[in-house]
Amino acid sequence: MHVGHPGLVAEIVAEIQASGPITFARFMELALYHPEFGYYTRECEELHENKIGEDRIGWSGDYYTSSDVHPILARAIARQVRQVDELLGRPDPFTVVEMGAGKGLLARDFLAASEKESASFFHRLRYVLVERSPAMRASQRGHLTPWMRTAGRVSWLDGLEELETGSVTGVILSNELVDAFPVHRITIEGGVPKEIFVDYEGGRLCERVQPLSTQALSDYLQRLAQLEITLPEGYKTEINLEALAWMTQVARAVKRGVVITIDYGHTAQDLYGPDRRRGTFLCYHHQMASEAPYERVGLQDMTAHVDFTTLATVGEESGLHVTGFTNQMSFLMGLGVEQLIESLEPGSAEFQSVVQLLKPEGMGRTFKILIQHKGIESPELDGLRFKPFFGSVLAAAERSH
Ligand SMILES: C[S@@+](CC[C@H](N)C(=O)[O-])C[C@H]1O[C@@H](n2cnc3c(N)ncnc32)[C@H](O)[C@@H]1O
């Protein structure tokens, strides 16, 4: 068994020995984002500029994202964003904030498409990347060099808190960000919700079930109870409290515009339903999924699916209204992916890549897209033309409004 990065494991063990068992969320925070040794933060192994980050995200890394498959998602988002620009009356500047951009491929393809399709939009466009990992930022710089020659076109922030209140007129965008936030893990024991902590015993990291570490977890379960979701005995799942704090910060930053959140996830009813009694937490290493967080600590990705209902509800409470909720397949179709497919030779590599992003039994339906707005009256967006399902997200959010 590979325990993981020795420096990181030593730090985690030292913290447990100093202050007792830590929450799983704290363990995940250290494993992914420890300033020196975290999976995302530690320096990348490749030295070649354009390969930075490839040891983690990409075909030769631990997992790949839509941006590795084909630029079509970025191009569709660019088209969607230009429609938002029109609805906002072509503000100058028009700001796009992308948070958690990984290697920066979506940003690269978005900027390329925007430059090609509309000079007047591109002229007003400011692209701000919010990234906490220096290694990922280095990779982003490598991919965005062509656009860094124009002062102010592309810039970076370490965290969303650096954005002033109401400073964004435009779009806040993320792809697979929220699933990378550290999650609390809970279980139901004797009819009572308990939390999973990480301890160190007999030379190994192990789990300990203890009372909930914070009232915020009880409040979250209370929200679920209002949706008539109660977790049965033995149920094990995750709660992403950071996602809620993030949503509030996003709402605060937007003056007028749209928030586009892409991730794998579900409505609360699906995520916390009877089919997912073991939760959705997974680790990824060399394109293989496992449920083994105490192996390869700091050397593998960790993720959990997103509860879009609670995200939308908290957004509503902070002034972000739900525009719609769809999946990647419907979003791409609404933005004209069929035209692109028709222009491709069936069976070609490019054709296969685009189909991969659309597949109903794969990325097309696994990935969901939540769009919210503020300061625009009920925008009608092409990406939401096909509304396949999930009325409950809207219903839940609207009830709280
Ligand atoms: C799963 S990767 C997503 C990569 C990319 N968006 C893509 O689709 O290829 C998650 C990214 O979010 C970043 N991240 C996680 N938490 C963050 C935070 N609180 N602030 C800024 N970036 C964060 C990670 O460093 C990483 O770059």
Polypeptide structure, described:
There is one protein chain. By secondary structure, the chain is an alpha/beta fold. It has a domain at 49-180 and 240-276 and 299-400: Rossmann fold. It has helices at residues 6-19, 24-33, 66-69, 72-87, 105-117, 119-124, 134-144, 215-226, 241-253, 268-271, 308-317, 328-334, 337-343, 349-358, 363-366, 391-400; strands spanning 22-23, 94-99, 125-130, 154-157, 168-175, 184-189, 192-201, 204-211, 236-239, 254-266, 282-285, 288-290, 301-303, 306-307, 321-327, 367-374. The strands form 3 sheets. Strands 2, 3, 4, 5, 10, 14, 15 and 16 form an 8-stranded mixed sheet that branches. Strands 1, 6, 7, 8 and 9 form a 5-stranded antiparallel sheet that branches. A 3-stranded antiparallel sheet has the order 12-11-13, with no helix packed on it. α7 (134-144) links the parallel β3 and β4. α4 packs across α5 (105-117), α9 (241-253) packs parallel to α11 and α11 packs parallel to α16. The longest helix has 16 residues, at 72-87. The radius of gyration is 21 Å and the shape is globular. It starts with 5 loop residues before the first helix and ends with a helix. It binds S-adenosylmethionine.
